[in-house]
């Protein structure tokens, strides 16, 4: 017998949201299917690729590994919450440096990169590469992504 659903209440990109979900539903599925925020992608589904990166109560996490029950009352930021009326500086830098190619990894890269910038953890190329080590990209070879992250960290386009 499957467990009864719970009413999950959380703050998503600054807005109060709720959804009736199974307690062990993956946060990734809640985000995409129940909250309708399809910017967060599924890659491996096993915590290896970072495509599903979101910021949960200030920490960078893989949404494919987290059950809904763990996020009751939490504050969640997804890629949809990064831009205001304008693109964020990191999004602008991705555009300028060609950091997105097929784009599959891009939402996770942007979320992880934003978290690094907010932690003031981007000081040089080695640090940027290490900071993005949990996010896999098969297209860009990371050079353009790292260039974009460094540029955003230095406040240039
Ligand atoms: S889909 Fe979550 S880490 Fe790959
Ligand atoms: S742009 Fe294609 S996987 Fe990163």
* Helix/strand order, N-terminal first: EEHEEEHHHH
How many separate domains?
Answer: 2
Give the termini separation. 54 Å
Helix content: 25-40%
Low-confidence segments:
none
Using DSSP, what is the number of strands? Answer: 5
CATH architecture of the largest domain: Roll
The average pLDDT value, as a whole number, equals 96
Largest sheet: 5 strands, mixed
Total helical elements = 5
Basic shape: elongated
Class from helix and strand fractions: alpha+beta
Strand order, sheet with most strands:
2-1-5-3-4
In the CATH hierarchy, the third-tier topology of the largest domain is known as Ubiquitin-like (UB roll)
| Hetero compounds | FE2/S2 (inorganic) cluster
SSE arrangement:
Layout: E1 6-12, E2 15-21, H1 27-34, E3 53-56, E4 59-62, E5 75-77, H2 89-97, H3 106-118, H4 125-131, H5 143-153
Provide a short characterization of the protein structure:
The chain has helices at about 25-35, 90-95, 105-120, 125-130, 145-155; strands at about 5-10, 15-20, 55, 60, 75. By secondary structure, it is of the alpha+beta class.
Considering the chains and any ligands shown, give keywords for the structure.
single chain, 157 residues, Ubiquitin-like (UB roll), 16% strand, elongated
Describe the protein:
The protein is of the alpha+beta class and 157 residues long. The chain has 2 domains: 6-81, Ubiquitin-like (UB roll), CATH 3.10.20.30; 89-153, [2Fe-2S]-binding domain (DNA polymerase, domain 1), CATH 1.10.150. It contains 5 helices and 5 strands, in the order ββαβββαααα. It has helices spanning 27-34, 89-97, 106-118, 125-131, 143-153; strands spanning 6-12, 15-21, 53-56, 59-62, 75-77. A 5-stranded mixed β-sheet has the order 2-1-5-3-4, sandwiched between helices. Strand 3 and strand 4 form a beta hairpin. Helix 2 (89-97) packs across helix 5 (143-153). The radius of gyration is 16 Å and the shape is elongated. The N and C termini lie far apart (54 Å).
